[in-house]
């Protein structure tokens, strides 16, 4: 059970139910991080600890060609719907380039799902900005501007 820092943020390292857990405390303040770790340790000892969400590692698959990639993605999508009982509207497939869109659509259709592309052309409700009158002034107080 320890704290360590990555950049400015403190991370908690502890074990629960025989598993090592490493999670961000979400703070750059060491005292707040210590409180966070103490709370987590207390939860583990009291038996009320809830494991952080999204602790499963991502599944990475490789293929030698585009057809294999499409087939693998279709099988994976189908298994999420059939085995994991995930509703199709809860699944999102993100691509890095327009060149991948056709393969993604093929995979979604092969999995028996209906593709829907969202891009920068998606319409959104109009946003109305109303300017708020505001006056700014600085006041010299106690030897500095406020």
Describe this structure in words.
Among the domains are: 45 residues, no CATH class; 45 residues, no CATH class. 8% of the residues are buried. The chain is extended and about 65 Å long. The chain starts with a strand and ends with a strand. It has three helices and five strands; from the N terminus they run βββαααββ. With 146 residues, it is α+β, with helices and mostly antiparallel strands. The strands form two sheets. Strands 1-2-3 form a three-stranded antiparallel β-sheet, covered by helices on one side. Strands 4-5 form a two-stranded antiparallel ribbon. The mean pLDDT is 78.
Secondary-structure map:
Elements: E1 2-6, E2 9-16, E3 19-24, H1 30-46, H2 66-82, H3 101-110, E4 140-141, E5 144-145
Antiparallel strand pairs: 1-2, 2-3, 4-5
Name the descriptors:
single chain; two-stranded antiparallel sheet; 5 strands; 30% helix
Given the helix and strand composition, which structural class is it? Answer: alpha+beta
Strand fraction equals: 15-25%
- Identify the strand order in the major beta sheet: 1-2-3
Number of helices: 3
Instruction: Determine the fraction of residues in helical runs and give it as a percent range.
Output: 25-40%
**Any low-confidence stretches, pLDDT <50, length ≥5?**
none
Q: Give me the count of strands.
A: 5
Largest sheet: 3 strands, antiparallel
Question: So what's the overall shape?
Answer: extended
Mean pLDDT over the full residue set: 78
């Amino acid at each position: 059970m320890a704290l360590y820092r990555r950049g400015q943020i403190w991370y908690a390292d502890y074990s629960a139910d025989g598993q090592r857990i490493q999670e961000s405390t979400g703070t750059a303040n060491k005292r707040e991080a210590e409180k966070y770790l103490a709370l987590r340790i207390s939860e583990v000892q009291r038996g009320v600890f809830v494991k952080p969400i999204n602790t499963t590692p991502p599944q990475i698959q490789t293929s030698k060609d585009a057809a294999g990639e499409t087939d693998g993605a279709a099988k994976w999508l189908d298994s999420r719907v059939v085995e994991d009982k995930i509703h199709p509207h809860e699944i999102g497939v993100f691509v890095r380039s327009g060149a991948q869109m056709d393969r993604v659509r093929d995979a979604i259709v092969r999995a028996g799902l209906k593709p829907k592309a969202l891009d920068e052309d998606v319409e959104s409700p109009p946003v109305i900005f109303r300017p708020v009158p505001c006056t700014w002034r600085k006041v010299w107080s106690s030897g500095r501007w406020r």
